[in-house]
Each structure stands twice: as C-alpha cells, then as structure tokens.
C-alpha cells in the first residue's frame, strides 16, 4: 500500500484524460476520483466513452494526454503495480470456452502470481460468492450468458484486488439474472472499491454510491444517485388510460397546473393519454383527481421512464444553463 | 519465468485437448515415415541415413508450423481474453515466449517419435552418427524459426485461417528467395542466399554444422518473436 492512498483515501485519481482515436476524441478532459470502499458508476449511452475510461484505468491502453493513478501508482509508469491491484471484467466477458470454471479460475490465479495454497482456498470462496457451485466443473462453453458473466466476475475478484473494474456488468443477460448480478456487485462493494460502467439509470442508482454521467466523451454531471434521480425528474411523462370523451378528458388534463402537453390515441371513448409534466413535480394524484372527479373511468396511470438519450439531452441542457 | 511457464503449460494442455495438434503431428509423422522408407527402399544404393526424411521435413514444416501456431494469439484476440492477458500483472513478452515454448515443446514431442527411424537404421545398418545428430539439430532450429514466424502471423489477426496463410506465405518466401540469385547476381545474390531458409538447411542434412547457419535460425526466431511482441503491444494503441 502506498503512502498516497493512506493520505487521502483515493484509490483512483484521474486527471484530464483525453483519448483520440485518429482525429476523433473518444473522451475529452475527463477527471475523477474514486475513494476507498466506494462504488463509483459511469453512466452514459453507448459510445459515450465509458469503455475507453475503463481501459485507460486498467492500463490496457494509454491516454493521449492526462494521468491516472491507482493506489498512488501511475498507470503508465508503474503499469505492473497497477495491474496487480485491479480485477477487471471487460464488456465482452473474456473466457476460455474449452476450460471448466475451476480450471479457468486456477489459470487466472496463477497468472496473477497467486500461490497454489491461496488459489486452492480462494476458488471455493469465489465460486460460492458468485453462486457457481453447480457449474464449477462444467465447461464454460456450456454455460448460459448469465453464468458466464458470473464466471467473469469470479475471475475479477479471485485475487482480492484493491480495485474492481466492471465494464457493463449486466449487459446481455436475462432480467432475473440481472437482479442477482446487481445484488452481487452491491455485496462486493462492501469490501471492495468498485468502478463500473452502465448505460442503465436504475442500475446505477441501485448499485452505486456515486454516479458520473458521461456524454459524448465528457462528464456532464456528478452526484449521488438519489440526488441525480431528483434532478432527472425534470421532464416527466405520465401515461393514462381513461374511459371518457376524448376531447373533454384531454381538456381536463391540460387544465391541471403543471401539465405541458397532452396527446392521445385510441377510440372516441377509450383513449391512451400521454401527459408531459413540468420539471420536478409529481402530478399523478392531481391528474387522477381530475379524471375521477368528472366521473370518468381511470383504467391505468403510470410514469413513463424517459429513455437515456432524453435524460442526457435534458442534463446537457441543464448544465449549459437553459 | 513462472508466469511464462503458466502460459506455456496452459497452451500445452490445449494442444492435447484439441484435434488440430494431433492431426498435424500425425500427418508430420506419416509423411516423414513415408519419405524415410521410400528413400531406403527406392534408391539403388540404399544408405543407412536419415537424410531421406530430414530434407523433406523442412518443407513439411513450412506448412505445418503455421498451423501449429495459428491458434496461439489469434484465439486470444477472438475470445477477448487478450484484454485480460494485457491487463494482468505480466509482461507482454511473457505471453509471447510462453506460447512459443508451448508450440516448440509440442514440436519436440512430435520429433521424438521420429527417433524410431534412427533406431531402425542403427539396428539394421551402420550409419554415420554425425549427420544424424546434425540433422536433428537442424530440424530443431528450423522448427524454432518456423514456429516463431507462425506465432508472429497469429498475432496479426483474430482469424486463425488468416494467421496460417500469412505464416505460410512468409515461410514460403523465405524458403524460395534464393531462386532469385540466378538472375540478380553479385552482392545481392549473396545476401539473398544468406536470407534463404533452404540454403542454410542443406548443411545440416549433410552432417556439417556451420555456425553461421545456427546463428541464422536463431536470428530468424528472435526477430519474429520480437515482432510478435511488438504486434501484441500495438493492440494497446488501436
């Protein structure tokens, strides 16, 4: 452990990272820190530069300009020291398909310089932690995507790294396994410092202590997930299914203060209304009253979550002061 | 060193669990066996020597070495495991050398079975020991050089077939390059002759150890291993 880490408690310190692919900037002037014991998330749409940031921190590729230290060691000048301290799960889970889970973990362990005894004690531990008991001796090519992901996670935590770097850890696995995987990451966050990337907002808010939003290669916001969620309530959309005369219903909805726009589709007497609501207000109860008060039937009412692109658009607008 | 051997051991295990390596070894042994017998039975004055299979073995290796080596780095790129290797606490050269050692060990294992022919000629004849030893030395050096070329080719593409074809192309060019000496002449001819893998091999099969030939094969192996390491490093810049 280096003196830097004990002094300020930062595991990762990135300053002014810029990476060009040819003349195209994948990320520009990205700076951030990750504190010890924190789960930090990079949230951004596809192509925002998340993977580039992860790859720079792992030492896989050098930044065009800027510096990163992990536990006080510079990623470029002290690459091996950095790599010793990280566990990394890339976006495409790197697995040797013709090995069994156990063989794969043993290989990864010895690659990281763990001795035989330590490998022998750690493998059953991570297999249990990632709930791979039933598949420990199965060949990896037989495993489903979710179990492959867990094998990838098991590999990343095998050597008890100081920093765990997970690139899109829940992409492409089925919804039930996604919930499991998030819980697993959350529980890993109790003993590890975690840096992860995701393009799913709810995932970031469930898993992370702190979220950085990255868009078109730049950090546009940084906050705790609950604050972020509040800021993101900015533009909200409510969907309602109402039994009643369409024209009148839509007028009644528009008259609720805070409503910006109402559109509807459907037959004359049963319509699906999409109501755009002003920043930061939850109008659901007022909207419901407006409908029920007139004696119309309210069949459905729910918030439509905005697509990530819309969120980022609203955030970038917010940041530029509009 | 230990990490290098970890990688080598993993590759050796893979050789024994995939059919390709067995096929290459079997074809190599079948062809050398054929050459050995045909040479002894087919010539009027059948001599007790292993030249019969040593000389064609070099040509067989031009084809076989790229196939033995094609998976080594191409597969890592295709599976995405290269990213894992390059972010593990190991040097890039350890990856390359480990993989080279694995393919070289498998080649030596295959060559071991040809000792059967040596046993036969010593049993039934009275051969010169010199050409037998130099023949094997030549084959071992030739194998190291061709496998290094194959490994370099494997670092270029995630596609194993591309790797094999490129490796074969480089080796064939290095083998036939001395043909141009007929019309270039002068210093250029000498240089081209020295670059050729074939020219250097003839000595060994005749029982002569020319130090420059030993240096030549080791140089080819070192240069292409170095190129493979640089090619691996270049993945970080892509």
Short description:
The complex is a heterodimer of chains A (322) and B (238). Chain A has 322 residues and is an alpha/beta fold.
Shape, principal axes of CA atoms of chain B: globular
- How would you spell out the order of helices and strands of chain A? HEEEHEEHEHHHEHEHEEHEHEEHEH
Using the alpha-carbon principal axes, give the shape of chain A. Answer: elongated
CATH topology of the largest domain in chain A: Rossmann fold
CATH A-level architecture of the largest domain in chain A? 3-Layer(aba) Sandwich
Order of helices and strands of chain B: HHHHHHHHHHHH
Q: In total, how many beta strands of chain A? A: 14
- What share of residues of chain B is helical? over 70%
Query: Count the helices of chain B. How many?
Result: 12
Mean of pLDDT of chain B? 90
Helix content of chain A: 25-40%
The biggest sheet of chain A amounts to: 6 strands, mixed
The share of residues in extended strands of chain A comes to 25-35%
Low-confidence stretches of chain A: 1-7
Tally of strands of chain B: 0
Overall pLDDT confidence of chain A: 85
Structural class of chain A: alpha/beta
Distance between the termini of chain B: 28 Å
List keywords for this structure.
heterodimer, A: 322 residues, alpha/beta, Rossmann fold, Alpha-Beta Plaits, six-stranded mixed β-sheet, four-stranded antiparallel β-sheet, 14 strands, disordered N terminus, B: 238 residues, mainly alpha, 12 helices, globular
Would you spell out the secondary-structure blueprint of this structure?
The complex is a heterodimer of chains A (322) and B (238).
Chain A: H1 3-8, E1 10-21, E2 24-35, E3 39-43, H2 50-58, E4 65-70, E5 73-74, H3 79-84, E6 86-89, H4 101-111, H5 116-129, H6 145-157, E7 163-167, H7 175-188, E8 193-198, H8 201-207, E9 210-215, E10 218-223, H9 225-232, E11 236-243, H10 246-254, E12 259-266, E13 270-277, H11 284-292, E14 297-304, H12 308-319
Helix pairs in contact in A: 4-5, 5-6
Chain B: H1 2-17, H2 19-42, H3 51-79, H4 81-86, H5 92-112, H6 115-124, H7 129-156, H8 160-176, H9 181-184, H10 186-195, H11 197-206, H12 211-234
Helix pairs in contact in B: 1-5, 2-3, 2-5, 3-5, 3-7, 3-8, 3-11, 5-7, 5-12, 7-8, 7-11, 7-12, 11-12
């Amino acid at each position: 452990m280096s003196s830097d880490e004990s002094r300020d408690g930062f595991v990762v310190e990135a300053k002014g990272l810029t990476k060009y692919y040819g003349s195209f900037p994948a990320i520009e002037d990205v700076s951030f820190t990750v504190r010890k014991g924190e789960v930090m998330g990079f949230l951004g749409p596809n192509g925002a530069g998340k993977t580039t940031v992860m790859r720079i921190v792992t030492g896989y590729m050098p930044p065009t300009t800027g510096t990163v230290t992990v536990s006080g060691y510079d990623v470029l000048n002290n690459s091996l020291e950095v790599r010793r301290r990280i566990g990394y799960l890339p976006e495409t889970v790197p697995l040797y398909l013709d090995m069994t889970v156990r063989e794969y973990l043993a290989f990864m362990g010895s690659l990281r310089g763990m001795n035989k005894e330590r490998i022998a004690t750690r493998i059953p531990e991570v297999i249990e932690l990632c709930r791979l008991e039933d598949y420990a001796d199965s060949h990896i090519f037989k495993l489903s995507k979710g179990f492959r992901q867990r094998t990838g996670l098991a590999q990343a935590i095998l050597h008890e790294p100081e920093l765990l770097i997970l690139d899109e850890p829940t992409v492409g696995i089925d919804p039930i396994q996604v919930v499991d995987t998030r819980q697993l990451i959350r529980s890993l966050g109790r003993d590890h410092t975690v840096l992860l990337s995701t393009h799913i907002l709810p995932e970031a808010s469930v898993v992370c202590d702190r979220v950085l939003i990255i868009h078109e290669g730049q950090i546009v916001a940084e906050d705790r997930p609950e604050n972020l969620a509040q800021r993101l309530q900015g533009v909200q959309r409510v969907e309602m299914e109402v039994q009643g005369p369409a024209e009148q219903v839509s007028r009644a909805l528009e008259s609720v203060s805070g409503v910006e726009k109402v559109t509807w589709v459907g037959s004359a007497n049963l319509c699906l209304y999409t109501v755009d609501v002003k920043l930061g207000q939850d109008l659901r109860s007022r909207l419901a009253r407006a409908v029920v008060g007139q004696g119309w039937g309210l069949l459905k009412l729910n918030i439509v979550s905005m697509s990530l692109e819309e969120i980022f658009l609203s955030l970038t607008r917010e940041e530029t002061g509009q | 060193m230990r990490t290098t051997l970890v990688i080598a051991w993993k590759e050796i295990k893979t050789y024994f669990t995939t059919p390709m390596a067995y096929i290459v070894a079997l074809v190599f042994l079948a062809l050398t066996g054929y050459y050995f017998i045909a040479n002894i039975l087919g010539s009027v004055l059948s001599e007790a020597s292993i030249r019969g299979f040593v000389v064609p073995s070099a040509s067989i290796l031009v084809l076989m070495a790229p196939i033995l080596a094609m998976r080594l780095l191409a597969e890592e790129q295709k599976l995405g495991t290269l990213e894992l290797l390059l972010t593990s606490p190991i040097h890039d050269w350890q990856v390359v050398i480990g993989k080279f050692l694995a393919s070289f060990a498998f080649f030596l294992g295959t060559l071991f079975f040809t000792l059967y022919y040596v046993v036969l000629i010593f049993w039934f004849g009275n051969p010169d020991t010199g050409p037998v030893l130099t023949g094997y030395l030549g084959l071992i050096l030739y194998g190291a050089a061709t496998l290094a070329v194959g490994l370099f080719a494997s670092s270029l593409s995630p596609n194993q077939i591309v790797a094999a074809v490129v490796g074969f192309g480089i080796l064939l060019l290095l083998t036939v390059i001395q043909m141009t000496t007929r019309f270039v002449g002068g210093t250029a001819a000498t240089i081209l002759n020295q670059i050729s893998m074939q020219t250097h091999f003839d000595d060994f099969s005749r029982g002569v150890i020319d130090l420059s030939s030993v240096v030549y094969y080791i140089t080819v192996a070192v240069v292409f291993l170095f190129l493979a390491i640089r090619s691996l490093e270049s993945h970080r810049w892509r």
